[in-house]
Amino acid sequence: MAGGGFASSSNETVFEARITGAVILSCIMAATGGLMFGYDIGISGGVTAMPSFLAEFFPDIYKRVQVPAAESNYCKYDNQKLQLFTSSLYLAALVASMVASPVTRQLGRKQTMLLAGVVFIVGTVLSALAGNLFLLILGRILLGCGVGFANQAVPVFLSEIAPTRIRGALNILFQLNITIGIFIANLVNWKTAQIAGGYGWRISLAGAGVPAVMLTIGSLIVDDTPNSLIERGFEEQGKTVLRRIRGVENIEPEFEDILRASKVAKEVKSPFKDLMKSHNRPPLIIAICMQVFQQMTGINAIMFYAPVLFSTIGFHNDASLYSSVITGAVNVLSTLVSVYFVDKAGRRMLLIEACVQMFISQIIIGVVLGMKLQDHSDSLSKGLGLLVVIMVCTFVASFAWSWGPLGWLIPSETFPLETRSAGQSVTVFTNMLFTFIVAQGFLSMLCFLKFGIFLFFSAWILIMAFFTVFLIPETKNVPIEDMADKVWRQHWFWNKYM
């Protein structure tokens, strides 16, 4: 099974490649790590909106929600333990990401994905069967360890195995699967909330095991990347895999390119220390800033707590879960836009356009809530409630075709081989750190800032726009091992570090 051939230039070399079945299968199987991550992002918000779940683990919040007039609309769900239920996963992922870097480098991308799947399965079982808050949080911590390993290995795997010309589209399979996972989780929550007996939340949490099993099986089937095999000394095996995934006989130019990068990588004894060197500063700063900005758009505040947010503005429980299904569907469809355009229009255009769209959406949401939703009013009018849902969807759409996928793609393709695992580890660490901060603080911030929280996030989006215009370079159609020469040395600002 093979598609049309193409060649991508790399200074004096030409890398021939066909879109082979081996590449497509490997990328689909690896991207199920995104499905696993996305399902967990989506499931936690819906579960925390279920009365039966609140009654069992958070009785104080359950009582508060049952008497709406007794508490400010913005403060109904303000509870540090409830926020810890969501955020503990990301705190664990943050720690695991640092351990995942040497594991990914020494054992390979394939074995790291296998480990991620197995740990996630154990965490799923513990979460679904939990009888008290301690076991529930422990299960979330194990899920976080699985996420940390998967988010470390999967984007690097996808960038290394994909032909240059379609690297962006195939890498975005990871983000596409995150959005599909969120959408499926929203659907599951919507249905399980209607189950009589109050155990629907257990089914929702148990569902996370499905993508984890898919990733585990997939990691047993696929080959490791040629880059990883060659870096670990398996040159002939790496060459064989490279020939298989490229579908052509003339793989010598690309093989030699990877071999040169591997020799440089072997000279680096401490990748994290090497990250601090001047020539690695551009991709490191870009990677860190993109993760901070990705979270400070407020996207995960909306995705984690969408049902809670919609309940806050007056939607009933079923309606709030249904609204989350709509935003989840928008998320999936909009990510497909990125798959189509990322290797055509480029990375920068998508990032800049999205900043404008997200800024306008957040401002409108903040203004509407500020003018019409008071602390103890029952809800927005039907028309204004619909406007808020539309603006949330507009915001989610723009994020889904830009900062969502590109926040993972650009860091995974810009680090040199010798610091790629370490760079990805810092990327995941930063992402999880700020995901944890947003998850742990959002409900308290909503209570304190009220509608102003949307204006807070919009201010960050304005900063992101200026950063993108001046400091994020275009990386489309650049071979992954040639970023230093073709991107950083050509950039008006970053070239001084090279």
TrEMBL record:
A single MF term (Gene Ontology): symporter activity
Stretches assigned to coiled coil: none
Superkingdom of the source species: Eukaryota
Domain Major facilitator superfamily (MFS) profile, residue spans: 26-476
Cell compartments where the protein resides: Membrane
SUPFAM superfamilies in the record: MFS general substrate transporter
InterPro entries per UniProt: MFS_dom, MFS_STP/MST-like_plant, MFS_sugar_transport-like, MFS_trans_sf, STP/PLT_plant, Sugar/inositol_transpt, Sugar_transporter_CS
Protein name as catalogued: Major facilitator superfamily (MFS) profile domain-containing protein
rRNA-binding found in the keyword field: no
Keywords: Membrane, Sugar transport, Symport, Transmembrane, Transmembrane helix, Transport
Similarity comment: Belongs to the major facilitator superfamily. Sugar transporter (TC 2.A.1.1) family.
Pfam families linked to this entry: Sugar_tr (PF00083)
One Gene Ontology cellular component: membrane
Membrane topology, as annotated: Multi-pass membrane protein
Transmembrane segments: 19-39, 82-100, 112-131, 137-158, 170-188, 200-222, 284-308, 320-342, 349-371, 383-404, 425-445, 451-472
Major localisation: membrane
